[in-house]
Amino acid sequence: MLRGEVMNARWHTLVQLLTLLLLGLMAGFFFAFAFDVVPATLQLDAEHYVLTQQAINRVVRNVVFGMVYFGSAVFPFILSWSYYQRKTLLYAKAWLIVALIYFVMVFVLTRWVNVPINQEMADWNPNLPPENWQVLRDRWNMSNYIRTAAATMCFIAGLFLTIRISTQNAYANSSLNN
C-alpha cells in the first residue's frame, strides 16, 4: 500500500468510527429521554412540567451536545462520500440511505416540530401555561419517539454495515493469504 492509500484508509476508518460514535450517542440520548425523562415529566403538573422543560432546553444548548447533534447529521454523508471515493458503491449507497433517513427523520423533524415547541415553551409563564400545553407536550413527545426510533434504526444499520464490511474484508484478506 502506498503512503497516500494508507492515509486515506486511516481517514476513512476515523470517519467510520466517528459516524458510529455520533449516531450511537444521539440514539442513546433520544432513547434515554423517551424512556426515562418523558415518563417522569408525564407525572408533573403544568407548572413543574414547564419549569422542567425550560431548564432542560437551557442546558442542552452547549458546545459538546451541538457537536454531537450536528455531527451525527453530517458524518453519515461524509462516510457515504468516502465509500464513493473508494469505489465501494454499494456501501456508498447504503450509507447515503442511512444519512438521508437520519437527516429527515431526526434532524428535519427536530427542526420542524421539537424546536418550535421548545421556542414557544421558553416564553411560557410556568404559573400560567397555555390551555393547550398538554397537546403541545404530547406532540413534542410523539416527535421524540419517532426520532428515537429513527436514530436507533440508523445506528443499528450503521453497525450492521460496519460488521458486514469488516467480515468481507477479513474473508478477502484470508483468501489472499491462503
UniProtKB/TrEMBL annotation:
Alphabetic keyword roster: Membrane, Transmembrane, Transmembrane helix
Matches recorded under Pfam families: Anthrone_oxy
Residue ranges crossing the lipid bilayer per the database entry: 58-82, 94-113, 145-163
Entry superkingdom: Bacteria
Name of the protein in question: DUF1772 domain-containing protein
UniProt source species: Parvibium lacunae
